[in-house]
Amino acid sequence: MRRVLLLVVVALGASALLVPAAAAGAAESPLAPVAVTGAPGEKPTVKFKAPFAVKKSTSDVRTEGTGTKAVDGSQVLLDYTILNGRTGEEIETSFGKSPVTLALDKQATAALVDGLTGASTGSRVVIAVAPEDGLAKNGASVGVKKSDTLLFVVDVKDVNTPLARATGTAVTPTAGLPIVALASNGRPTVTIPKTDPPADLVVQPLIDGRGPVVQAGQTIRVHYSGLNWRSGKTFDSSWSRNQPSDFPIGAGKVIAGWDEGLVGQKVGSQVLLVVPPNKGYGAPGNSQVGIKGTDTLVFVVDILAAG
What we know:
Layout: H1 4-8, E1 19-20, E2 35-37, E3 45-47, E4 58-63, E5 75-84, E6 90-93, E7 100-103, H2 110-116, E8 124-129, E9 150-160, E10 168-170, E11 179-182, E12 188-191, E13 202-209, E14 219-228, E15 234-237, H3 238-241, E16 245-248, H4 256-262, E17 270-275, E18 297-306
Parallel strand pairs: 1-4
Antiparallel strand pairs: 2-3, 4-8, 5-6, 5-7, 5-9, 8-9, 10-13, 11-12, 13-17, 14-15, 14-16, 14-18, 17-18
């Protein structure tokens, strides 16, 4: 079953901001009836009298961490347990499995972002997400009604603040490859040569970053532009959206050219990828963006974070 958290963290257009417990205007936190026991890092035991509901999303830090503090744009590695406030039942948990990475940006749900912004590595945070913020409507398959309050108990395992652009040591590329020029903000302009593309995958670092090496199974945050060698036209660019993107890498979730070309690179690097059809979209191509089954693709990828 697909994790609910991974389903709901995508932005849902919720406009209500999280109401911090200390500013909720009550003598005690609305989350006071929710008892959470167990050491951070271990699966918590959560007890409350059901049904439990809040009208406004709210959060409460139960354990203060001492590590890096999460800010807007941070990537947070976390473990979580989700419960249904109406029934008191656990919906799912990552404890005993593998933690997940959540980017605190506009792609994620405001209630979760606001609840974790300011939390430090080592913190345990309880977040109650009100029905009006829209998370519950995605949970019908696990017995959640759209009128339910969802309770998250989150352990912050690590906080990583992504770079804004690639940074490191410039690398002189091999002759004959596409030429990349950078604007003052780092946005690339790519000129593709009037020659036949190489038959094999080309992985050419343009900037050698100073960060940790990207490992298979991590989620990377990137700024990128993708072009079609045949036409020279850009078919996708995070720069045009003014928003970096997050992708699982080395796990078969993206095209093979990315999995093979970006695993092993360092955070902070800028990498030029020339991706032949068999490591891109294959024979079917991608008609939505004008890619034929025989097209070679060119990507310029800034690796901003990995976790």
